[in-house]
Amino acid sequence: MTKIVAVVLFSIIDVAAALTNFAVLCLILPRTCLRTVSNLFLAGLTLTQLIMTALVIPFSIVTFAEQSWLFGDGFCQFEGFLTNFLSISSATFISVISVDRFFSLANPMSHAANVTSKHVIFASVFNWFHSAFWAAFPLYGLDGLKYNYIPAKSGCGFRWDLKGSYFIYYYFIAMESFLLTSFTMCLMYFKSFQTARKSARQVRPGNIQIQVLQNGDFTSVAQTNSSFQSLKANCTLTLIIGSFMVSRGPLTIFNIVTSFAGEGYFSELTETVVSFMLYLGPLVDSLVYVLLNRKLRKEVFLILRRCFKKRDEEEEPKDIVDYLRTLTDNHMSKANSSTEVEEQ
Is residue 186 helix, strand or coil? Predict the structure, then answer.
């Protein structure tokens, strides 16, 4: 019974994550006004996570339900590679987003003039090639470093308890997928906060406060409610950094401990729960980055309002020209009807 509930819960999370990431792509890409540099980096992150919700998580759910890998060794190799590739790629996108937001705040004129959509495309392609290069090492099967089915993780991956020079690869993967990104995020958002506060003091000491921008950055504005603005900035940082730490941190810690203690140190249930926490990332990240972006959040609310707002067919036009045109059309239709009756 517990397994059925877990499978249903995992499936709901996966479907919600897939729909959310697909909706973010549909929101950003068709609209020119939303295709800013920051939002294009967000689109790259969203695309990476959408692939994970479609090609990784469903197979892990099936494997968890059946307690065995049903899709062959070749596909297991592909799944292990894809999981590692997407994990590194999404973490790198999150790092790049934090760096981009800092420089857009510290040097807004230079950033707007020198960072274009071409740079975003180049950085995204480089990120994917870089991630694929490092994720491909276990495909070579070097002395046991190979993607295999790991029951405790309900999926395919490489063993973290091989001794020798493999420690270099282990810690590089841990650095790329978690440690380096965590350090970059904390540093860049702290620097952003410092830059905004310094700018505020230079403009007008004592009457300036830090406010969150549309894309989650900070800027200096006239003071209205210092405690509220400070709380808002702290909540923003907590959500952005906390969502990443919660979804990726436990699995990274478990992998590092396993490299010392060996496989089987943790119970299978614990490892399964920690492994599936990684799959919360595609859902949580998309919600956090969209809801904290004022422009994207406004677009979402406008779309929802259009979808659920009941329109009255007899509603009077708001535009005076449309209103007069409606009166004229009604008058002409009545006149035509009268003419037809007289002719009969």
Answer: helix
